[in-house]
Design a protein that fits this description.
Elements lengths: L10 E2 L2 E6 L2 E7 L6 E6 L3 H16 L10 E3 L13 E3 H9 L4 E3 L6 E3 H6 L19 E6 L14 H8 L1 H6 L3 E4 L10 H11 L2 E6 L1 H4 L2 H16 L4 E6 L9 H4 L21 H20 L5
Parallel strand pairs: 9-10, 9-11, 11-12
Antiparallel strand pairs: 1-2, 2-3, 3-4, 5-6, 7-8
Helix pairs in contact: 6-8
């Protein structure tokens, strides 16, 4: 949806403000609740919310097992003045309309509300299909699994976590194709285990910075990677091992089954074997991840 982001300062991790032809939409995700709320105001509210809904629909189709409920706010005399009105499931309204039902009762006011007014009051038909925004514009959520001894507590003065994120900068900051999470984003006092599990459950891609440090960290192998590989088996995400240091990862069946980067058994720490510089090694990683990301977004990834 980013063509409609007119002010980049109004885009943050859990929300964004979109603007189209004088109409604005606030889209927010409440932390800890699997819910996205869309509020629209302006002269062409129906047109903008239709575009947003279509974009979300195209995005959801990438996940076969994802269950989504689309809720329509009640527009009865009582609810239209409430911050938290009654809601109806969109598909329930469609079913009632197909069954020749004219109205539906509001759970708050008990008023009979016309179904057509609920449906026609929210969505409309956009004549110019070129206005629909492709799901390619929606950033993929990426979780980075790594050992702290390869990051901020590295003993060889190389922070592989920051080097990796720096290499992906064009995908993260400039093209907004990936939105990354790692444990350095945890807040003091936060339930870190719960947050990590939530981020893994919502991740599209899990990057694994592989080293002996990572392989001997039980929380990573027993919790993070178990969640990641279980979700991958269900078709809910993909995992990408990044081999940062020489180790016996190829002898671990659940890890070796995935194609890793750098290719052909090369590692970042031993870049001299294959690459002219460490920067070239990271550029190779970037190129491979760019292919994976673009393939994922265009549904070409298998």
């Amino acid at each position: 949806m980013h063509p409609y982001i007119k002010d980049q300062t109004l885009s943050w991790r859990s929300g964004v403000v979109l603007e189209r032809q004088g109409t604005k939409a606030l889209i927010t995700e409440t932390y800890g609740i699997p819910e996205i709320v869309i509020k629209v105001k302006g002269v062409e509210t129906k047109e903008l919310i239709t575009l947003i809904a279509e974009s979300f629909d195209s995005m959801y189709k990438r996940f076969e097992n994802l269950k989504v409920k689309k809720l329509i706010p009640c527009n009865c005399k009582t609810c239209r003045n409430l911050d938290d009105p009654s809601y109806y499931e969109y598909m329930r309204l469609i079913k009632r309309k197909e069954d020749k039902k004219v109205t539906i009762e509001c759970d708050l006011s008990y008023e009979n509300v016309e179904i057509t007014s609920l449906l026609d009051g929210v969505f409309t038909i956009v004549k110019d299909e070129s206005e629909f925004v492709s799901h390619r514009k929606v950033a993929l959520k990426a979780f980075i699994s790594y050992s702290k001894f390869d990051g901020e507590e590295s003993k060889d003065a190389v922070n592989y976590l920051e080097d990796f994120k720096s290499a992906l900068n064009p995908l993260i900051e400039h093209n907004k194709l990936i939105e990354t999470f790692d444990d350095t984003l945890l807040i003091a006092g936060e339930d870190w285990d719960n947050r990590i599990r939530e981020e893994l459950q919502s991740a599209d891609i899990v990057f694994i910075l592989v080293s002996n440090n990572l392989l001997r960290t039980k929380y990573i192998t027993k919790t993070e990677l178990k969640i990641a590989f279980d979700r991958e088996a269900e078709g809910k995400c993909i995992t990408v091992p990044i081999i940062i240091k020489d180790c016996g990862w190829e002898d671990i069946s659940w890890l070796a089954k995935n194609n890793a980067v750098p290719r052909k058994g090369n590692t970042i720490s031993s870049w001299q074997v294959k690459f002219k510089s460490k920067d070239q090694a990271w550029k190779h990683v970037y190129d491979e991840i760019k292919k994976i990301t673009e393939g994922f977004l265009s549904k070409e990834f298998v």
